[in-house]
Amino acid sequence: MKRRHFATSMLVGMGAAWGLGATGLAAAQGAAAVPAQAGAAANAASASAAAGAAAALQVVATFSILGDLVRQVGGERLQLDVLIGPDSDAHVFQPRPSHARQVREARLLFSNGLGFEGWIPRLLQSAAFRGQHVVVSRGIAALRSAGHGHAHGGHGHGHSHGEHDPHAWQNVAHARVYVRNIADALCAADAAGCDFYRQRAQAYDDVLAQLDAEIRAAWAPIAPAQRKVIVSHDAFAYYGQAYGVRFLSARGVSSDSEPTARGIVRLVQQIRQEQVRALFVENVTDPRLIEQIARETGLRPAGRLYSDALSAPGGAAPTYVDMLRHNTQALTRAILGA
Ligand SMILES: [Zn+2]
Fold this sequence. Notes:
Layout: H1 2-10, H2 23-30, H3 38-50, E1 57-63, H4 64-74, E2 78-84, H5 97-104, E3 108-111, H6 120-126, E4 132-135, H7 148-151, H8 172-189, H9 194-219, E5 228-231, H10 237-243, E6 246-249, H11 261-274, E7 278-279, E8 281-282, H12 288-297, E9 304-305, H13 320-336
Helix pairs in contact: 1-3, 2-3, 4-8, 8-9, 9-13
Bound molecules: zinc ion.
């Protein structure tokens, strides 16, 4: 790991003479403090980096959104596996033996926490995980789960979503806390890379601060009373709280709980009374519920929001920043009727 870092950070501006042997590696450890040795150190480093990525820090992130945040901080120093890929629903995820193998070999496992990954304890046990489990939502003020009562309706699929709403990443301020927690954990596990992680975390934090300002600017022209949206599961309470938008949902906080007929009737009445204008499907949920509500209210679905998973590369939301940008644009356009 150390060698890879020197290779990427110190090669700039140096005439690379490749092929120094293992004796150069000792110099690499102290190179930062001894400029005269830096050239030799970098050469040794690049030689060993070229030999393979085996020295990278092995880490696992539970789902695609978190995977992107970890990658933003850890970059090429990490060998990152993501358990739940793009467009896949973490609420109904069932770990397979291949996931247990990825977890077994990891030094760090990053999870969201707040009950999002109810399957974690069993997976860590079956994988005999010996690394560090890092819950990235630590330190945020969690919202109570809106679907609290609903989630206790007897859906016995082995999911325990707990009393908190897990979708904290939908508030950019919380993603910034995630990033700090990720950088702290990477520094603790890989001290030689700490400067690298801190620099990347800081640069990415600047991007997130700008994203947050951009979202607020996009909502600014819309009167608070008009900021009402129908979605298929309660994934946007944090976004709603941060940016002043009301999200209504017939479903509970988890996408695996079925809406009741009475819940749908109530929602349709509410849509009419409050003159809600925007209706959305999500990338991780069955669109039939939203289509039914669309038929009964005459509202047309205004597009797709990304709630619990990124899109595949080349899609509308392949990164966290793209996701927030896409959602904000889709929401504000639907409300403005653009
Ligand atoms: Zn969800």
